[in-house]
Amino acid sequence: MAIAARKTKAGTPAKAAGKAPRTAAKGAAKGAAKAIPNVPTFTREEELHAYREMLLIRRFEEKAGQMYGMGLIGGFCHLYIGQEAVVVGMQMASKDGDQVITGYRDHGHMLACGMESRGVMAELTGRRGGYSHGKGGSMHMFSREKNFYGGHGIVGAQVSLGAGLGFANWYRQDGRVALAYFGDGAANQGQVYESFNMAQLWKLPVVFVIENNRYAMGTSVNRASAQTDFSKRGVSFGIPGEQVDGMDVRAVREAASRAIEHARTGKGPYILEMQTYRYRGHSMSDPAKYRSKDEVQRMREEHDPIEQVRARLTREHKLGEDELKAIDAKVREIVNDAAEFATHDPEPDPSELYTDILLEPAQA
């Protein structure tokens, strides 16, 4: 299946947002557009920013997986390894005040929004210093300060909530845009289309970001979706859509800039299908036997989003190996500090069991 990038408005193809890498996924989508190279050039500072942000997410998720294996993280744990370019590119195009809402594969989104590694990891281990005081985990983590409105455990629920955030922005005329992330599996939920209809009807400032990692919980999109070009899912509502190489942070930032500007200027919602890939299973408990090891290895070797940036920094911006190792060392220091904090921070006091359930009226 080619990772292509094309725009669809009433079904009309346009210029691609990025070059399509070749992959080994079986059963390529029929009629997929051939991508036209049109990837912007990043400055040295932009490449370094993208590299640090994606590397932080990668190292954080690797550590989270390790801590899950040690029994320090319980419940469900869905890692974002391989998909880092999507949220980092989107955040590079957004402005302060824009909101983010997503599903339960959300640790990377939180970090990209500027949430502290300590607070995110402590929430995963159920400690007081977590963003929800250790009572929520991945699926109940929020930060009003950073405009992160949650990873949500109900599949597709965040799409309707994201439309609600867009409605609030429209009602207040505050110039903000809501970014609602969801996967290829959630894209088949009925509430998604109800949200599309309302968002376009009222021209709400929301960008729907479909992170198509091709396997949902474990079923290939070609077996589960009659229309595998997810950028076309809004055609019947008149919502423009675009396929993007979600493994290239430059292509993501470029497409995100267009989509966010479209929404911010009162033209209504926009759909971005990010064609990406997760290296791990759906969750830590998923052995991912529905795909071959060769397929995963080929994606890592040919299309890894971090290695692409690393190669450009070395080739085009003449960064030495020592400089790159220093960046990695600093990132590992941040992640190790978060893990140490999340291991030794106290658990919530039993008195917290019944707090944060009902909104208590303010005392006079």
Q: Kindly, what is the distance between the CA atoms of the first and last residues, rounded to a whole number of angstroms? A: 62 Å
Q: Low-confidence runs (pLDDT<50, min 5 residues)? A: 1-6, 8-36
Strand order of the largest sheet: 2-1-7-8-6-5-3-4
By CATH's scheme, which homologous superfamily applies?
Thiamin diphosphate (ThDP)-binding fold, Pyr/PP domains
Q: What's the number of structural domains?
A: 1
Total number of β-strand segments? 8
Percent of residues in beta strands: 5-15%
**Shape call:** globular
Fraction of residues in helices? 25-40%
Q: Averaging pLDDT over every residue, what do you get?
A: 90
Biggest sheet: strands, sense, closure? Answer: 8 strands, mixed
- What is the highest CATH level, the class? Alpha Beta
- Order of SSEs: EEHHEHHEHEHEHEHEHHH
In terms of structural class, how would the helical and strand content be classed?
alpha/beta
Enter the CATH topology name: Rossmann fold
Number of distinct helices:
11
How many whole angstroms does the radius of gyration measure?
Answer: 20 Å
Oligomeric state of the chains present here: single chain
Give me the CATH architecture, please: 3-Layer(aba) Sandwich
